[in-house]
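S.,

Sequence below, as promised.
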Amino acid sequence: MGGLIPLSDASRRPARIPVVTIFIVLVNALVFALELMNGEAFVAQWSAIPAQITSGHHWITGKLHRKCWNTQNAGP
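The prediction came back faster than expected:
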């Protein structure tokens, strides 16, 4: 009796190492470790709150936002 989710496929062996997948897993592990170390402050800093996004706050903040906005609105 086989499982519902196949864990491998004997007819198709990968030709190379899945570098992007490994990178994504490592980044997720790093973010998870940072969340465990910093707790609620980390979550509050990096969370996307819908009310703040729709009002334009905290989506792109600081000098980068002002620099991009001034560059786009500059006249010829």
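The two ends are 71 Å apart (CA to CA).

Coffee later?
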